[in-house]
Amino acid sequence: MAPTPTAPATPSVAPRPASLGVPARPQTRTDPAERRTLVVGRGISLQGTVADAERLVVEGTVESQMIHAAELFIAGSGVFKGEVEVEDAEILGAFDGTITARGSLTIRSTGRITGVARCRKLSVEEGGQLSGRMEMLSGDTAAPARAPAPAPAPAEA
Q1: Among residues 107, 104, 109, 106, which one has the least CA distance to residue 126?
Q2: pLDDT tens digits, the chain, 157 residues: what are they?
Q3: Is the CB of residue 111 less than 8 Å from the CB of residue 99?
Q4: Can you give the pLDDT at residue 66?
Q5: Parallel, antiparallel, or unpaired: how do β-strands 112-124 and 55-58 relate?
Q6: Quick one: which of 85, 83, 109 has its CA closest to 96?
Q7: Where are the domains positioned within the chain?
Q8: What's the sign of the alpha-carbon dihedral 127, 128, 132, 133?
Q9: Which of 40, 87, 95, 133 is most buried (most C-beta within 10 Å)?
């Protein structure tokens, strides 16, 4: 009697359930501060303006007429030349120009600022340098002045 052909053996592999706590596909970050961070890396030079950056990290060189951001961090290797207006700033490298920090300005032991520095709260570690003009902001000057709302027009009878 001739053997009857059989189907090739295929191993039965059950699908693996997704691991608990691990998403099936990568999820996008929803934290706006994470998405709006600009890092100018070591050895990189940037000239121009920066718009809509929440956090600016300078490890290389930045030259700008005006930058608005919530936070500025200049690393020990970083150099910033120009004008910046931020909420808070931490300087470990070199800043040359005008800096306005509506909140705090921290100059670390390796940091140096040359030019004009304005802030509400100043902290300078031993070794940190500030050469130029320093202006402390009060509660009134820290926020831009608002024009009063126009009075409503009188109603006619």
Answers
A1: 109
A2: 565 655 555 555 555 555 455 444 444 444 544 568 999 999 999 998 887 889 999 999 999 988 888 999 999 999 999 999 999 999 999 999 999 999 999 999 999 999 999 999 999 999 999 999 999 998 765 444 333 444 555 555 5
A3: no
A4: 84
A5: unpaired
A6: 83
A7: 36-138
A8: negative
A9: 95
Dihedral angle sign, alpha carbons of residues 33, 62, 48, 64: positive
Which residue's structure tokens are 């998403």?
A: 23
Which pLDDT belongs to residue 139?
Answer: 73
- Contact residues for 93 (Cβ-Cβ < 8 A; gap 6+): 58, 74, 75, 76, 77, 78, 79, 80, 110, 111
Q: Which helix (H) or strand (E) holds 33?
A: helix 32-35
Structure tokens at 67: 């930058």
Q: Which helix (H) or strand (E) holds 32?
A: helix 32-35
